[in-house]
């Protein structure tokens, strides 16, 4: 039977490690206590987090112990990675609210009973640090020259990097030092934009605690391909159903490119590798079946088997006569949003968040990209009546985005 480390490699989940043999032995024998951090930049996790959570789940199932780190403290600074400008400063109340939302979602993936995993928040130690003491005890071990060569900072230098953000690497490095010292955490995982920060954590342990402690730590870089495949035109694909409905989530994966479907199945689902390997020869109409399997498995993981089945049924019904729109993403239109009992199609599309502006709605309609109840709209002046809304009005934007607008009777 394949060991967990080889399975992770085969699934394409590992990009880089600090000591492969040591990491292989630790996680194969269930001796890794590893952490992954989640900064609360929104009130929902997204697909990038989902990839990390699935990796944690796989390793926990193999007997290893996850440390889930909520970035309530680092959230005060904001990770500059992947940013072209300074993040919006969040209030302490917003940060705490987002952490609470993350916690509820993470508990769907990771088992915390009987000390199987640890949930910590770095606000518990970072906010208590004294600034001068931090500069002397931690800052002295970091070279600004080396920091600025890190990819997460380098891409920001032209447009401006704030001193606030410059401290992010120090804070994240201190997290690993703290978790190693207080929880026996011997391994850290992260995406490719975190590599420099994670190496900084190992180096801090070496300088503060000596070579023996340093030798007990390791770093694993996750393959970020799954995260990249989870990006939509509108931004992140969210795990919270109020942001991305189960149907929208299902439909996104149902429509991935043919070239990506098996890669996604291998990386993101928990289907046995033997079953996935049999799909390698699939082509033509079989790839549509593979996409349904991918969409169903991921929707089941994130939402539930019932929601996955509902989304599957709705998706299939969209391409048949007598379409069932009961499980389609929907927006309720209020009476006070109508004028003389009607609402213009442009306003309706904006209210349903199918476009971000009236200008975009007008453009999409003029390009022939909008259907109302399966009929192409050829006029930007079209109106929808209250009676039509009470019966449920199906709007299709492009080939893949479906939405229902309705009014209560």
From TrEMBL:
Its EC number is 6.1.1.1. It is found in: Cytoplasm. PROSITE patterns: AA_TRNA_LIGASE_I, S4. GO terms for biological process: tyrosyl-tRNA aminoacylation. It catalyses: tRNA(Tyr) + L-tyrosine + ATP = L-tyrosyl-tRNA(Tyr) + AMP + diphosphate + H(+). One of its GO terms (molecular function) is ATP binding. One of its GO terms (cellular component) is cytosol. InterPro entries: aa-tRNA-synth_I_CS, aa-tRNA-synth_Ic, Rossmann-like_a/b/a_fold, S4_RNA-bd_sf, SYY-like_C, Tyr-tRNA-ligase, Tyr-tRNA-ligase_bac-type, Tyr-tRNA-ligase_bac_1. ATP binds at residue 231. Its main location: cytoplasm. It is an enzyme of class 6 (ligase). It comes from the Bacteria. A motif ('HIGH' region) lies at residues 40-49. Homodimer. HAMAP family: Tyr_tRNA_synth_type1 (MF_02006). Catalyzes the attachment of tyrosine to tRNA(Tyr) in a two-step reaction: tyrosine is first activated by ATP to form Tyr-AMP and then transferred to the acceptor end of tRNA(Tyr). This is Tyrosine--tRNA ligase. The gene is tyrS.
């Amino acid at each position: 039977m394949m060991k967990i480390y080889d399975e992770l490699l085969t699934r394409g989940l590992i990009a880089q490690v600090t000591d492969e043999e040591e990491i292989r032995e630790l996680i194969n024998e269930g001796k890794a206590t590893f952490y992954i951090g989640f900064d609360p930049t929104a009130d929902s996790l997204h697909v990038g987090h989902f990839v990390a959570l699935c990796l944690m789940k796989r390793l926990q199932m193999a007997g290893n112990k996850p440390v889930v780190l909520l970035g309530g403290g680092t959230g005060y600074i904001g990770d500059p990675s992947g940013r072209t400008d300074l993040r919006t400063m969040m209030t302490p109340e917003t940060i705490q609210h987002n952490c609470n939302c993350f916690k509820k979602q993470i508990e769907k993936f990771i088992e915390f009973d009987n000390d199987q995993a640890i949930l910590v928040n770095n606000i518990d130690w970072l906010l208590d640090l004294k600034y001068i003491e931090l500069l002397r005890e931690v800052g002295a071990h970091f070279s600004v020259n080396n920091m600025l060569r890190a990819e997460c900072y380098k891409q920001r230098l032209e447009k401006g990097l704030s001193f606030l953000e410059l401290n992010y690497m120090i804070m994240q490095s201190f997290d690993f030092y703290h978790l190693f010292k207080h929880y026996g955490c011997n391994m850290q995982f992260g995406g490719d934009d975190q590599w420099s920060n994670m190496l900084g954590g190992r180096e801090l342990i070496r300088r503060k605690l000596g070579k023996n402690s340093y030798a007990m730590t390791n770093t694993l870089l996750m393959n970020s391909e799954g995260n990249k495949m989870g990006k939509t035109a509108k931004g992140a694909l969210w795990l919270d159903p109020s942001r991305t409905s189960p149907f929208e989530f299902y439909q996104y994966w149902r429509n991935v490119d043919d070239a990506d479907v098996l890669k996604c199945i291998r990386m993101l689902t928990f289907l046995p590798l033997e079953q996935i390997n049999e799909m390698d020869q699939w082509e033509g109409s079989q790839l549509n079946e593979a996409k349904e399997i991918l969409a169903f498995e991921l929707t089941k993981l994130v939402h539930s088997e019932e929601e996955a089945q509902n989304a599957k049924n709705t998706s299939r019904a969209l391409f048949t006569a007598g379409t069932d729109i009961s499980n389609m993403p929907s927006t309720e239109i209020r009476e006070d949003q109508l004028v003389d009992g009607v609402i213009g199609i442009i306003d309706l599309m904006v209210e349903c968040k199918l476009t971000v502006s009236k200008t975009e709605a007008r453009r999409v309609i003029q390009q022939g990209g909008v259907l109302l109840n399966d009929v192409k709209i050829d006029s930007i002046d079209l109106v929808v009546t209250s009676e039509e809304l009470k019966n449920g009005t199906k709007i299709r934007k492009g080939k893949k985005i479906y939405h229902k607008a309705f009014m209560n009777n």
